């Protein structure tokens, strides 16, 4: 159960930066009319393997999360996945050379993860009693 949730966090967190990289150039797709513009953008992304591979992995993580909720405690699964996904997003983004706004932004993310960890620990402790 915990391994599945960690895998969900890895899939969600590590694919975000790749999705941003894969979507590069989307803003340059131009067509007349809203519907044609929408279809052109969908075609651009759908035929772009640099976007579709991370997208499918991300959606696989969502499916795994859905299946894991049958046996996982929701009050633990959601914060755990979100906190770990944030860490994996930060690490993957740094590896790809993304700028996260400096040390203050990273410190804010880490404090958020710490806060969620303390909340999860509190929920877990309450359930034991």
TrEMBL record:
It is a multi-pass membrane protein. InterPro entries: EmrE-like, TMEM234. The keyword Transmembrane applies. It is found in: Membrane. Keywords: Membrane, Transmembrane, Transmembrane helix. This is Transmembrane protein 234. Its main location: membrane. The chain crosses the membrane at residues 49-67, 74-93, 105-123. Belongs to the TMEM234 family. One of its GO terms (cellular component) is membrane. Signal peptide: none annotated.
